[in-house]
Amino acid sequence: MSIQFFSNLSKNYIEILEDDEYYDITIEVGEDPNVKIFHAHTIILCHRSPYLRRALANKRNNNNSGVLSHIKLPNILPEIFQIILKYIYGGILSLNEHDTLEILKVLIAANELLLNELVDYLQTYLIETSKILYEFYG
Question: Domain named BTB: which ranges (predicted)?
């Protein structure tokens, strides 16, 4: 028999994301004047995003061991990347907190980062939501 404790695991990974002590990468997100630097963990990013895996592999090949990595994602807004990071670390996505435009921005960012599970989910969510609205408003 196997028991799964995903809610506690998810909570612990969110705590890792919020911990500023043990990160090994900084991610500069957005464009001036709306730029934010996030702290993250290479091992988690590489296993959750094929795009980030490639970007970080290229950085690792060009960097000395033990040096803090830094990447830039100018095409993604900081508030959207925060939502993406919560998904990457904890598998958490709270769509009821966001309007359709924000959800579309999350979808575009998820597609750029090759987060296929999230892209598929958001596409289905937006289609279903639009069907409900169409049926309600005609």
Answer: 23-97
pLDDT in tens, 84-102: 999 999 999 999 888 999 9
So what's the pLDDT on residue 101?
A: 94
Q: Into how many domains does the chain fold?
A: 1
Each residue's pLDDT tens digit, 63-83: 656 678 999 999 999 999 999
Residues 6+ apart with CB under 8 A from 16: 22, 41, 44, 89
Give the SS3 label for residue 95: helix
d(CA 98, CA 101): 8
Question: How many residues in the chain?
Answer: 138
* Residue type for position 137: Y
SS3 48: helix
Q: Determine the 3-state secondary structure of 115 from DSSP.
A: coil
User: For residue 53, what is the domain's CATH number?
Assistant: 3.30.710.10
Q: How far apart are the first and last CA of the chain?
A: 50
